[in-house]
Amino acid sequence: MKRSVLLFLIFICASGIRTYAQQQLINGKLVPAVLRMKNGDSVTTIKQWEEKRRPELIDFFRKEMYGQSPGKPTQLTFKVFDSDKKALGGKATRKQIAVYFEGNKDVEMGILLYIPNQVKHKVPAFVSLNFFGNQSVHPDTSIKLPTGRMVLEGQGVVNHLATAASRGSDTARWPIEMILDKGYAIATVYYGDIDPDNRTEITTGVRSLYPDLQNRADNFGTIAAWAWGLSRAMDYLETDKRIDSKRIAVLGLSRLGKAALWAGATDERFTLTISNESGAGGAKLFHSIAGESIRKLCTKFPNWYCRNFNKYIDRDDVLPFDQHMVISLVAPRPVYIASASEDLNSNPEGEFWGAKGADPVYRLLNTNGLPAASWPAINTPITGRIAYHNRSGKHDITNYDWIQFLNFADRYLKDQYPVDR
Ligand code: GCU
């Protein structure tokens, strides 16, 4: 055989091996390896993960998918306009806080916070965005009724205005008393206060405060804006003497689950992250193909990710990245990915494999990762430092989900530094 032909064959084999090694086998599919640097170097130490690979991934996802958020505003104002120690029949202290950014009063983010009175030490808290306004999470008539334009209609929101009928209209998703009885505070913010989820214009919401970023192909999208808002709620929680800001769980459902995951991935102050039925652009692996595609995401919701993300339309199964890498960014902090069996748009199995794909990073960081080799049966939670369940039923957040999340928090938020139990 001619020397040049031999060299050519050696080259082909070597690049084949290299390509294979740059991939990770997830559920029989080759997916880009989370523990392999872009330059092909493998990541074998905690130091390499923390100093090189994690920053490389964050940088990649900021440029190519979620967009670059502006960071903590130079001016951030918290106005506590309500504080009642005898709320909910004496069970809780209720606080309401108006948050303003960059010295601008046009955008106001309202935080509703309930703190359990029975807890005498600093209280761990859940923080989560809501879809229908803070007044929808509990019938408590002292919760401020929103006056601005609401994004969604229904549940007492008429002509995009919140009426008195919207009070407590979403309580099925918000078991406030159960959360308080378990010893957790709960903070919630109306998602529309942060970003109104408008497909084309950026005229209101926090993204309107940064006009210089708006023409950039990596301007922060709506998902990143909601995550940014969660970080600003965290900024407030750090100032509240009753709250243990070292024990904060961030949680979200659906598009808000995508935002909670990105918040947990990028803001290490969140001790624990829960992404409930977040689907495509959340926990689901795009490589799994089933469920919502990048094309659907980018055409139906062009505001969610940055313009650069359009490059990946129709490339779901050949992407140079995938969502297991986003979940990995949470490591070694505990993360819970949850699915619902009838939520086919989110693709429950793809969400499970997204979580499983993060396992090598959790193991590298000396935790037990996700202790399941295959997709578990319905209503069978699997709990490691990565947890997963597939609840029977529709796309939603139910008491069943909350009970698992509270148990997970009991396991990992009891101590300042999580230990595997
Ligand atoms: C749509 C969308 C999902 C999203 C969901 C929601 O169904 O396709 O990606 O998670 O809305 O946020 O309710």
TrEMBL record:
Gene3D superfamilies assigned: alpha/beta hydrolase (3.40.50.1820)
Q: Which domain of life is it from?
A: Bacteria
A Pfam family that this protein carries is: GCE_fung
Q: Which GO terms describe its molecular function?
A: carboxylic ester hydrolase activity
Query: Which UniProt keywords are present, listed alphabetically?
Result: Hydrolase, Serine esterase, Signal
Q: Does the record's keyword annotation contain Hydrolase?
A: yes
- Annotated InterPro entries: AB_hydrolase_fold (IPR029058), GCE-like_dom (IPR054579)
UniProt domain 4-O-methyl-glucuronoyl methylesterase-like: residue ranges: 186-365
Q: Tell me if Cell wall biogenesis/degradation is a UniProt keyword of this record.
A: no
Q: What is this protein called?
A: 4-O-methyl-glucuronoyl methylesterase-like domain-containing protein
